[in-house]
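Recall from the previous lesson that a structure prediction takes nothing but the amino acid sequence as input. Here we apply that procedure to Coat F domain-containing protein from Tepidibacillus fermentans. The sequence below is the only information supplied.
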Amino acid sequence: MHQQLTQMELQSLRELINAHSLGYQKLQEYANQVTDPQIKQMLQQSAQSAQNTKQKLMSFLQ
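The prediction returns the following tokens.
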């Protein structure tokens, strides 16, 4: 059972979720633009990591 979040904590959590969402989008876009397979893979892995972190953070809102 999650404890009740304060308004400040909730706002911080929303900002973190938005930042990871934006990071995911940017990294995916960069990965789509590069041709070097190693750099593409690195960017895709970083994008997935940002997406995973976003999902973990969103679980605190449930």
